[in-house]
Each structure stands twice: as structure tokens, then as C-alpha cells.
Amino acid sequence: MSRNIRLVGIFVLVMFLALFGSSTYIQVFQAQSLAQDDRNTRTLLASYQVQRGPILVDGVPIAYSTPDGTEYMYQRVYANGPLYSAVTGYYSANQGATGIEQAMNAELSGKSDSQFFTSLQRLFTGETPAGAAVELTINPAAQQSAMDALGDQRGAVVAIDPKTGAILAMVSTPTYDPNTLAMHDDEQVIANYNALLENPSNPLFNRGIGGDLNPPGSVFKVIVAAAALEAGIATPDGALPNPNEWQLPGSSHVIYNPNHGAKCGDGDTTTLRMALEQSCNIPFAQLAVQLGDAKLREMAEAFGFNQAFNVPMSSTASVYPEEKLDNAQTALTGFGQFDVRTTPLQMALVSAAISNGGTMMQPNLVKQVLTPSLQVLASPKATEFGAPISDATATALQSMMQGSVDHGVATNAQINGVAVAGKTGTAENGDGEPYSLWFTGFAEVDGQEVAVAVVLEDGGGMGQSGTGNGLAATIGQQVIKAVLEV
Question: Model pTM?
Fold first, then answer.
């Protein structure tokens, strides 16, 4: 009998220790993740008892909370929601949160560590609990210009200050109205959310930093040119072979320059400058093979490919294939095809680094975090991502990209009285599929700098008839003008 009692005692002790261990693990180690889980309705309802802080652009609220007289107490409101949806995202009672609403949730809800004493003070003074305000780096004129220029087209624009990494514009179209997901009618919110999910144009995608990534096409030639200059296998005006067609190594496939069968210039040789200005495929394919896929991958990754950026939303990593490529595949990456994929954020950062003398800054959307009484809680400092290229290489690329805009294939980016540098791209997506159209570039006026990248999907509505210069460069020009106020 005593033996059975001992066994029962041991079993109860083991069960008690298991219960104690699991509850300790949940309360200590899983508490934060459980509190932040979108399915935790208790935490969500509790969050609505606090007046969520506003999101500001140029001091003006673009998202704020107002009393609504329901159990939630506060209703989230988005002023000009479709214009800023790619930035703010949404904060929903049953669909979670995205964008800045998600990335800065701790600050907006008043739960960040830096707000402990502020929240404690409001508790003792009897003030209504409130979250911090998050002010963004967005330039409202640039944001509006990007939206107007994109219009009904499917695509995105990202503009960056090369000196600081501050994101000045981020627009993705088609857009949506976050107010339709922030209302407190659950059935209507779910219906609205499902309608957005079922929309074949995918308006919930933020194409500026993610979504279904596009091949960069010829804008990737800037990275190939950078690698060739850094490796010393080419100079801006040194001679390069200039055939009118070229068979890929180890393949029966033949590639051509954009004007089918045309040489890159008139002579038997061409130059890197001419190849970039006229966006010739063959010289860049040959340079890519000469460099090898390892060096191309190294340069692409130095600019940020194959890793995500936190802006503070996490971007989808742009892709340069990580597996070893054969020479034919490497040649195709030389003009941004094969399996290379990228975001406008990534290409804007490439242009920004070239504009900034070879130094690339970390991209950032948050200018400062403010208490409910508008005292500064945090002001993120500009930080370097790295220096993918030397100042000499950056200077050479600046000159060649200016030539592309002045008299090359990016002429629609020209602005009177402003030295604009740029590169266009018209990327293939498969037989019969519409092209992806690109522009990336930069300019400076009176110390104000801007780098921009534009992508248009579905050929800008023109299938395989649209071109990067014809459509994307014009959009880039409009955004540059808005930032520089010219």
C-alpha cells in the first residue's frame, strides 16, 4: 500500500512541476509574444481603452484615434487614407495591423519602455491614458506627386534622402482605404478585407517594399557597371567588344541589344559609358561573365540584396540567386534577368549610394517619437548601411547616369536647369507576359538631394509596348521635381 502511495505522490509531484514549469515559461518567456498576437482579443480590446497616438506627416495627423462611444472607446481614423496606406497600414479590431501601425505599435499604444514614466505620470494625474505620436519622414508634396503620377497604373514609387536614408515618399498602387478595415462593425470589416484579398490587383501589397517582386531589367546594369569598375575590368571610356548579337556561353540562345540586331554605337568597339547611356545588353552580359556570378552576387549584396531592411516595417529581401550560376545564367543577370528580383526600395537605395559618394544609409520612415504633450521621446539617428563602392566609382557612375538622362534612353527624366542622373529598365517576365517598367535616379538642388525608384507592373497598362523611359522615367521626374521644388 505504501508503495502505491509513494508512486501517486511522485506522479503528483511530476505533474505539479510540469504545471509550474509550463506556467512559468508562458508568463515569463511567452508573455510578450502572446500579448502582441493578433488573435489575443483581450489584449486588443484593452488596447482600445488607450487613446492610440497619432501618426504625423509634417506635423499633421494622417492617422489618429477619436472617441466613438462603443465598448472599444476609440475609433481609428485615417485622413486621406488611400494616399498613405502603404505607409500607415491599418489597425483593425479583427484583422490585426500592418505598416507603421504594426511596426510602431508599442509606441502608438503607449507600451514601449521609453513611455513607462510618462504613462505612470498620467496615471497619477488622472489624465486619459494615451500612446505616443510617431512623426514620419514623408514629404507630403512628394507623396502626393507620386500618387498623382502613378494614377490607375499598378506599381510603386520610393524616394529617399541619400544623405540620411529618410524615406520621402512611399506609394503603392492600386491603393485602398484603411478606414474600411478600422471600423467597429466586424461583419463589414471582414467583408471589406475579403474583397481586398480577392482583388486580382492585390491592393494590400506594399509594392514599394514587397509584394511579388519584379525583375529589375536594365536598372540592374548600374550594379554590374559598379562591379566592373571596382574590379578594374572596365573604365567608363575604355574599349569593349561591340557585336550586334551574342550567343550565350554553353547555350544556343542568342541575345541582342534593345534595338534588335543593332550595335551599341557605330564602331567595332563600344564603351561602358555608351553601353549604360544606351542600355545595351551585350556589353553587360559579357562583363557579367567576365566578373563571374560570385563577384556580381558580392556587389549586389553590398548594396543590400538578399537581406531585409527594417524601415521600421520589414521589407522583402531583393534577390540575386544564391546558388552557383553557369555562364549563360550569369550573362542574363548582367542585364537584370534570369532570377534577379528587386523592390523599388532597393533600387532607390542603389541610386542613393551612388549620389552619396558610395556610402549607403539605412532607410528609415520615422523622424521622431513624441509624448502626448509633444515632448521628444526618441529621434532616430541616421546610420550607415555600408560603403558598397568607392567615391571614384560613384563619381564615374554619376557621370554615366547623367549622360543617360541628357542624351541616352532616360531623357524623360530631364528637368530644366537640374542635372538629373538616371537609368531606365524594361524587364521581361516570360513569353507573352507584360513587361515590368523601371526608372531609378537622383538629383540635387541647393543642397537638397533625392534618389527615387519607380516600378510599373503590367507594362504600365501597355503589355509589351510600354518602356521604362516612356512611362516610369516621367513618374520619377515628377517626384524629383516635387522634392526639389523646381
Answer: 0.90
